Amino acid sequence: MRGVGLSENKGAQLFREAWIAGVHAHFPGEPKAGYVTPWEDTPEWERSAAGAVHDQVRQFLQLSDGHAARLSREQKSRFVALCWTAQMYKHFTNPKPGYVADWAELPPWQQETDADVFEAIEKSLS
């Protein structure tokens, strides 16, 4: 696996920071430590996946000339979740079922957090 470059690193960090903020905003109770692990302690595979999903969202917004911003929060969340699922299949031969669950099976806090991630990336482009 190749390392995360500087520009990819910024996008991956933006993804991770938005994820952590979303978890703090939407998770009921105290989140598991892995959900809010600081960037410095985030495993390499997760940094790589975060960078890839960031780039997919960014490209999606750019290729739509920004009109993807008109998607509903649910649509934005579904896009992030689907991109993340593809990364889980890339990084793991047999990913945990929770890593590749369909969007409808995700807990509401995770659905909301995924939408927040999309919107944070969207805001970073304006």
Give a brief description.
The protein has 126 residues and is an all-alpha fold. It is built from four helices and no strands.
Offer a few descriptive terms:
about 130 residues; mainly alpha; 4 helices; single chain; disordered N terminus
- Class of secondary structure makeup: mainly alpha
Radius of gyration: 14 Å
**Mean of all residue-level pLDDT scores:** 92
The main pleated sheet reads as: none
Determine the N-to-C terminus distance.
31 Å
What is the helix content? 55-70%
Percent of residues in β-strands: under 5%
| Order of helix and strand elements from N to C terminus | HHHH
User: What is the global morphology?
Assistant: globular
Note the total helix count: 4
* Low-confidence runs: 1-6
The number of strands is 0
Can you give a write-up of this model?
The chain has 126 residues and is an all-alpha fold. The protein is 62% helix and 0% strand. It contains 4 helices and no strands. It has helices at 6-26, 44-63, 73-91, 108-125. Helix 2 crosses helix 3. The N and C termini lie far apart (31 Å).
Give the secondary structure arrangement, pairings included.
Elements: H1 6-26, H2 44-63, H3 73-91, H4 108-125
Helix pairs in contact: 1-2, 1-4, 2-3, 2-4, 3-4
